[in-house]
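pipeline/complex-builder :: batch 7 item 3
reading input block
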Amino acid sequence: MSEEKRKLIIDTDTASDDAVAIIMALREPSVEVLALTVVNGNIPLKLATRNCLIAVEQAGTYTPPVYVGHDRPLMREAVTAEACHGQDGLGDVGYPDPKLTTEKEHAVDAIIRILEENPAGTIELVTLGPLTNIAAAFMRAPETMKKLKQIIIMGGQLYQPGNWSVTSEFNIFVDAEACDVVLRGGVPFLISPVELCYGDCGFDPQERAEIAALSPTGKFAIDCNRAVVEFVKTRYGRNNLQLADPSAMGVALWPDIRKEVTECFIAVELGGKYCYGQMIFDYKNHLKLPANGAVCLSIDVPLYKKRLKEILK
Amino acid sequence: MDKKRNIIIDTDTASDDAVAIIMALRDPSVNVLGITCVAGNLYVDQCVRNALISIDYAGTYAPPVYRGMEKPMIREKMVTAHATHGQDGLGDVGYPDPKGKPQPEHAVDAMARMVTEYEGDDLEIVTLGPLSNVAMAILKAPEAFKKVKMITMMGSAGLGPGNCTPVAEFNIWADAEAAQIVMQSGVPFTVVGWDACLGKAILTVEEIDALMADNPSELVKFCIECNRCLRNLNVKRFGSALIDFADPVAMAVAIHPECVAKMIDAYCFTEYKSESTYGQVVIDYNGVAGKPFNGRVCTELDADEFKRYLYSLIKG
C-alpha cells in the first residue's frame, strides 16, 4: 500500500453505538485516528470519557490520545439517553475500568492545535455526538477549522418522526445551536442521518449472534448494545439493533457504501414550538438557496455489513 | 491594610473602556490579574491595541493582555460601534502604538486558566463588552467558575429603553447567546444597565471643561480626548457634547461599591430567539417568573460619589 492513510479526528459522546464506531475506525487499515475528543451527549461527560477509553482498549490496535471536551450544550440544559444505552452507556454489562487515561489538554484546544500542526485539507472529522465541541472550535478558531478536509456528521433525520422528538434526532436536538454553527462554518460536510440505521441497516437476532461469535470484540460490540435492543423493542416493537454511529462511521470509512448522496441546502431549526433541532434537507430546492453540504440518503447494506463483520473478526 | 480586590477585566476596548481600565489600574485597592479583549465596539485587534494604550496612560503596572473572540458565538451578523468611538476606537486622535504586546495565549484559555489557577473564592470579573469570551470560558471550565465571586457587567438597557433596538443595549445585543450563557451559569452577576449610566452620571460639558481647564495632565487629556467621536455623536444624540461613561460606571460599581445608590435582586435572562427583541435582558425583580433570583441590578448610581471617585483616580 503506497497510498497515504486518511487522517481522522473522532468526536464522540461515547455510548454503546459510538464504541462500535470507534472500534471500526481503529481497526480500519486505510485510516489513522489522530485523536478522540469526548463530549456530553448520550450520557454525562465522565461516563462518555470512560467508555471512549474502554472502546479504544477493546479495539486492540493502537491508542490515539483521548481529550475531554464540553460537559453541556452551548445554550440548553443537558439531555441524556440512558434510557437507550443503559445507565453506564454500555448496556450496564459491568465492564471494568479502563487502564488508559485521558490527556490534560481540553478537547477543543486539541482539535485546534492538531489542525494548526497539519497542512490544510489533510484531516477529516467524524462526529458521533452533539456538536458542542466542534462548534466551540469553530467559534474560537474559525480560520483554523477551515483546514479540515470534511466533516462527516452522525445527526439529523430525513423524515418525521425523529428519534428524540417529533421532528428531531438526538445529537442535533441536544445542541441545535452548536449544529447551526458547524453547518455555517464553511467546511464541506456530509450528513449521515438516523435513517441509515433503520430497517435492513439494523441487526436482527441471528445477525447479532453471528457477530457475537466472530471474536471477543464482536461479542463486546453486541453485548454493550443490549440496552439498545431492549429500547428498540419497547419503543418500536421490533427486535432490531439499530446502530446510528456505526452506520455513520461506515459512511466515513468506506465511501463505496454510500449509495445515494445528494448535495443541497442543509440547515437546522433553532426556534419553533415543536421543531427545535429539526434538520432541513432542501433537496427539492424550495428555498432556492445554494447547496452548502451533502447528505447520504442510503447505503449499500450488504457491503456495509460485510465490512463491519470483517473488521470485528 | 485590607486585601486587594482581584479582578479580570474583559473589554472591547474603545474610548469609555479605556477610562474604565485606567480607573482599575490606578485604584490601589485593586489588582488587575489580566485584561482579556473581545470583539465588540471594534474588531478584536483594535481592542487589544487600545487596551495596551490604556495601560500606558494609566502609568501604574501592566497586567497581561490577551486577544479573544473575533466575533459573536452564534449570531451570524457581527456589529461594531466604529461610528460611536471612531475608526480606531479612541476618537481618531492618532495615539502612538503602545509599548506592550499581547500574550500569545487566547483570551478564552487565559480566562479559564486564571480562574482555574486562582486560589481563593474572591476572584471577580468585570466585563465592559459583549460576553463572548466569558461565556466561552465558562463553557470550557464550568467547575472552576464556581469560585468566581462576581461578574459585574456593563450590559443591558437596565429598566429603561435600549440603545441599539427599542429593548436591547449594544453589549448584550452584539452577542445575546453569550449573555444568556453567563446569566444561566450559576455565577453571581451584577448588571449595570445603560439606564444607570445616564442622568446625573453623565459628564456634562461644564464638567468636562472644568477638568480640561488649567493645565490638565496627559492622563486627564487622554480620558477626555479619546472620547472625541462619542462627544460629536452626543451632540446629535443628546444635543450636547457630553460624555456618557457606561464602562467607567460599571467599573465603579464593581470596584467602588460606594457609588451604588440602589441595587436590586432579580431573576435575569437574555432573549436570544426572537427577531424583534433579540438581546433584551429581562429583569424580573418581582419574581413573576417564579424563578430563583440569579443576579442583581444596579438601578441607580450615586453620581456625585462616582464623579468624585473618577476624578480622584484620573487627576490624582
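note: Chain A touches chain B at residues 70-72, 74-75, 106, 108-109, 132, 136, 139-140, 142, 177, 180-181, 184, 270-271 (CB under 8 Å).
queue -> next item
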